[in-house]
Amino acid sequence: MFTQSLAQDVRFGVRMLRKAPGFTTVATLTLALGIGAIATIFTAAYDFLLRPLPFSHSDRLVMVKRYNAKLAQSGWTDPPSFKY
Question: What DSSP line would sit under the chain, residue for residue?
């Protein structure tokens, strides 16, 4: 029952798309651009945010900054925060 209804709906949709080739072209191009944009965004997000770093023990990577007391007193930089 469900498959017959689905097949009938698909046939009806194809008939409607054949009647309006301009709409079909615009809809197809819109879908292609949307899928391409999503694939590009996902690839960039994976490369920059999700992929692990190419170092052994990359979870132990730290950042070292120089602390200048004179600049900190004048308000140019924030004092370092050491969190373990």
Answer: -HHHHHHHHHHHHHHHHHH-HHHHHHHHHHHHHHHHHHHHHHHHHIIIIISPPSSTTGGG--------HHHHHHTSSPPP----
Full pLDDT tens readout for the chain, 84 residues: 889 999 999 999 999 999 999 999 999 999 999 999 999 999 999 988 888 778 788 778 777 777 766 665 655 555 556 665
Number of C-beta neighbours around residue 77 at 10 A: 15
pTM of the model: 0.54
Residues 67 and 80: beta-carbon distance below 8 Å: yes
